[in-house]
């Protein structure tokens, strides 16, 4: 009897131990330890249509994948025996101090991820002491986001001036919306909601496509040209940054027309598929502007080491888009803060291990690209 009781107790202890281990694994897996893990959490939290709207790219999604993969082909050349007991990641962008060179990219319809949408994202950016660029496709108006917090905000239209925004970001690579096949298959529909200019229609396009695509195309001006940039500059006192520059030719023109900065971007691989990964062209753009204006790079940043590589190639800052949305979907405002904080902590560690105590210490000699390796074999 006592042997049977002991055996039952042993079995019970083993079962309880297994349960505790399983619960521990569930707890561990639900708490992300890096930015990439937020993607799976967001996929579980969102309807398929909304997740694929955020995660998807244009056509074959070659550029979407290339944006991340290109970073993986750049290696870091660390320097040793450097006193890295104190690391300073702070910088300035257009005269505004921020805690790190990690900024929030413009992306639309944050309310699909969380009811507080861009309001939560803006508060998280303010708490992280960084800059948020508000999209034209925001779920909340420029005034509502402006009233939500005291973050330094850049915006994509001149209406921002009277709402206290500090710069205008003009997207120049979007004369028409790219072909996003996941949205077409899902018949992507968004409910009516306030945005910067009115209401998003809920009517599905008659040809069976995405109503979002039809709406966005109806708001775009395919005749936008460099003359319009000059005109916009003439009617606002705010600095204008051009987002979507990926060639040295356009970078030089941007300087000539008086842009205050350029953002190297392919729209997150959502516009022209088979355009180059942004990190592969950032150096070309940096050389073209010759230090006259800041260069910011957007697309594919998932690790602090990615930020380090972008800075080493000459960028002054990076923009983070999808990870912000994934953090918002998974954990709301706190999730956005976590995403930014994880990248900051990883950047700080990368700087320490590479022998850099401040951003100005990060130089071209700290990285080796595929082109460098090819040239070394000649």
TrEMBL record:
<dbReference type="InterPro" id="IPR012133">
    <property type="entry name" value="Alpha-hydoxy_acid_DH_FMN"/>
</dbReference>
<dbReference type="InterPro" id="IPR000262">
    <property type="entry name" value="FMN-dep_DH"/>
</dbReference>
<dbReference type="GO" id="GO:0010181">
    <property type="term" value="F:FMN binding"/>
</dbReference>
<keyword id="KW-0576">Peroxisome</keyword>
<feature type="binding site">
    <location>
        <position position="265"/>
    </location>
    <ligand>
        <name>FMN</name>
    </ligand>
</feature>
<keyword id="KW-0285">Flavoprotein</keyword>
<feature type="binding site">
    <location>
        <begin position="321"/>
        <end position="322"/>
    </location>
    <ligand>
        <name>FMN</name>
    </ligand>
</feature>
<feature type="binding site">
    <location>
        <position position="158"/>
    </location>
    <ligand>
        <name>FMN</name>
    </ligand>
</feature>
<feature type="binding site">
    <location>
        <position position="270"/>
    </location>
    <ligand>
        <name>glyoxylate</name>
    </ligand>
</feature>
<protein>
    <recommendedName>
        <fullName>(S)-2-hydroxy-acid oxidase</fullName>
        <ecNumber>1.1.3.15</ecNumber>
    </recommendedName>
</protein>
<dbReference type="GO" id="GO:0042742">
    <property type="term" value="P:defense response to bacterium"/>
</dbReference>
<feature type="binding site">
    <location>
        <position position="156"/>
    </location>
    <ligand>
        <name>FMN</name>
    </ligand>
</feature>
<keyword id="KW-0288">FMN</keyword>
<dbReference type="GO" id="GO:0003973">
    <property type="term" value="F:(S)-2-hydroxy-acid oxidase activity"/>
</dbReference>
<keyword id="KW-0560">Oxidoreductase</keyword>
<feature type="binding site">
    <location>
        <begin position="106"/>
        <end position="108"/>
    </location>
    <ligand>
        <name>FMN</name>
    </ligand>
</feature>
<dbReference type="InterPro" id="IPR037396">
    <property type="entry name" value="FMN_HAD"/>
</dbReference>
<feature type="binding site">
    <location>
        <position position="267"/>
    </location>
    <ligand>
        <name>glyoxylate</name>
    </ligand>
</feature>
<dbReference type="Pfam" id="PF01070">
    <property type="entry name" value="FMN_dh"/>
</dbReference>
<dbReference type="GO" id="GO:0005777">
    <property type="term" value="C:peroxisome"/>
</dbReference>
<dbReference type="InterPro" id="IPR013785">
    <property type="entry name" value="Aldolase_TIM"/>
</dbReference>
<feature type="binding site">
    <location>
        <position position="243"/>
    </location>
    <ligand>
        <name>FMN</name>
    </ligand>
</feature>
<comment type="similarity">
    <text>Belongs to the FMN-dependent alpha-hydroxy acid dehydrogenase family.</text>
</comment>
<dbReference type="GO" id="GO:0050665">
    <property type="term" value="P:hydrogen peroxide biosynthetic process"/>
</dbReference>
<feature type="binding site">
    <location>
        <position position="135"/>
    </location>
    <ligand>
        <name>FMN</name>
    </ligand>
</feature>
<feature type="binding site">
    <location>
        <position position="171"/>
    </location>
    <ligand>
        <name>FMN</name>
    </ligand>
</feature>
<feature type="domain" description="FMN hydroxy acid dehydrogenase">
    <location>
        <begin position="27"/>
        <end position="372"/>
    </location>
</feature>
<dbReference type="InterPro" id="IPR008259">
    <property type="entry name" value="FMN_hydac_DH_AS"/>
</dbReference>
<feature type="active site" description="Proton acceptor">
    <location>
        <position position="267"/>
    </location>
</feature>
<feature type="binding site">
    <location>
        <position position="180"/>
    </location>
    <ligand>
        <name>glyoxylate</name>
    </ligand>
</feature>
<feature type="binding site">
    <location>
        <begin position="298"/>
        <end position="302"/>
    </location>
    <ligand>
        <name>FMN</name>
    </ligand>
</feature>
């Amino acid at each position: 009897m006592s042997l049977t009781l002991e055996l039952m107790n042993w079995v019970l202890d083993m079962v309880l131990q297994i349960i505790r281990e399983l619960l521990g694994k569930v707890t561990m897996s639900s708490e992300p330890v890096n930015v990439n893990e937020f993607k799976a959490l967001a996929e579980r939290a969102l309807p398929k249509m909304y997740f694929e709207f955020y995660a998807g790219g244009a056509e074959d999604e070659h550029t979407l994948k290339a944006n991340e993969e290109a970073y993986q082909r750049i290696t870091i050349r660390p320097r040793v025996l450097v006193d890295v007991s104190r690391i300073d990641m702070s910088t300035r962008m257009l005269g505004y101090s921020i805690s790190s060179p990690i900024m929030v990219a413009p992306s639309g319809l944050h309310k699909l991820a969380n009811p507080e949408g861009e309001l939560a994202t803006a508060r998280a950016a303010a708490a992280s002491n960084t800059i948020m660029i508000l999209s034209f496709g925001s779920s909340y108006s420029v005034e509502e986001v402006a009233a939500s917090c005291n973050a330094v905000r850049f915006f994509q239209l001149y209406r921002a001036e009277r709402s206290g925004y500090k710069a205008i970001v003009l997207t120049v690579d979007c004369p028409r919306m790219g072909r996003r096949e996941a949205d077409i298959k899902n018949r992507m529909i968004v409910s009516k909601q306030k945005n910067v200019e009115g209401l998003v229609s809920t009517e599905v396009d008659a040809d069976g496509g995405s109503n979002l695509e039809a709406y966005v195309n109806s708001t775009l001006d395919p005749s936008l040209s460099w003359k319009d940039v000059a005109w916009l500059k003439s009617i606002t006192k705010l600095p204008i940054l051009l987002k979507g520059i990926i060639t040295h030719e356009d970078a030089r023109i941007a300087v000539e027309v008086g842009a205050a900065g350029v953002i190297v971007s392919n729209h997150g691989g959502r516009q022209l598929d088979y355009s180059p990964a942004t990190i592969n062209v950032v150096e070309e753009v940096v050389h073209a502007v010759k230090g006259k204006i800041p260069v910011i790079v957007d697309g594919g940043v998932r690790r602090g080491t990615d930020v380090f590589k972008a800075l080493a190639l000459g960028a002054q800052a990076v923009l983070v888009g999808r990870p912000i949305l994934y953090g918002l979907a998974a954990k709301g405002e706190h999730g956005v803060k976590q995403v930014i904080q994880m990248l900051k902590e990883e950047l700080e560690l990368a700087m320490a291990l590479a022998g850099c105590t401040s951003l100005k210490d990060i130089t071209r000699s700290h990285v080796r690209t595929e082109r460098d390796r090819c040239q070394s074999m000649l």
